[in-house]
Structure formats: C-alpha cells, structure tokens
TrEMBL record:
Gene3D superfamilies: DOPA-like domains. It comes from the Eukaryota. This is Uncharacterized protein. InterPro entries: DOPA-like_sf, DOPA_dioxygen.
Amino acid sequence: MLGQRQSLHFSFPHSIFSKEPRKCENREGHQFHMGPFEEIPVGNFLTCCNKSSVAKGLEFFSKNRRDLSIYLHPITNDTVKDHTSRIGWIGPSFPLDESKFYDYKGEPPMCW
C-alpha cells in the first residue's frame, strides 16, 4: 500500500451490541460509529496508524477480528484512489457507498 499513514476500518453490524458502547472520542486516532459513516454502510471503528505501526495493527486485527471485516486503505492526497483501487480487506468484503467518495487533492489529512 502507498502512503505514510493507513486507515483501518473495523466494521461490524449494529446488532452485535446490546448496550450503547463508550465512544472513543478521547482516544487520539480513533473514531467509533454505530451506523454508516462516509462510504462504509455499517457501523465501524476507525483507527489510523503511521506507516511504522501498520504491521502491528494488521496483526492485532487479524488475530482478534472474529467474524468481522477489516477494510484498510492508505491515506494520500488522492482520496478516490485510496478508497477504490488501493483498498484491502481482512475477512469478507462488502460493497462501499461510492456516492460518499470525495475528490480531495491536497495535503493528506493527519491521523487525528
């Protein structure tokens, strides 16, 4: 994958939670969404890591994902390619909402 930072989307169906989980708003580099967010049509946990820590993140999610899907992509200055042709999956893939892709050409966003 290209890019200095990677985005890992740990996706899940809303039904796996019986209670409202704690939000990760105080954890730098993480976002928790109970429902669809941007191109992801299901609830998801978004985390971002630097290139040097991607291997550890992939190892953790590979070992702990159970039956959930992991959608990953680089973060560069070409967001459309990052979310279409540069993606990878751990576990089953599912269709993304392409109407939510935006064409951002500029400095890649930082990992929160």
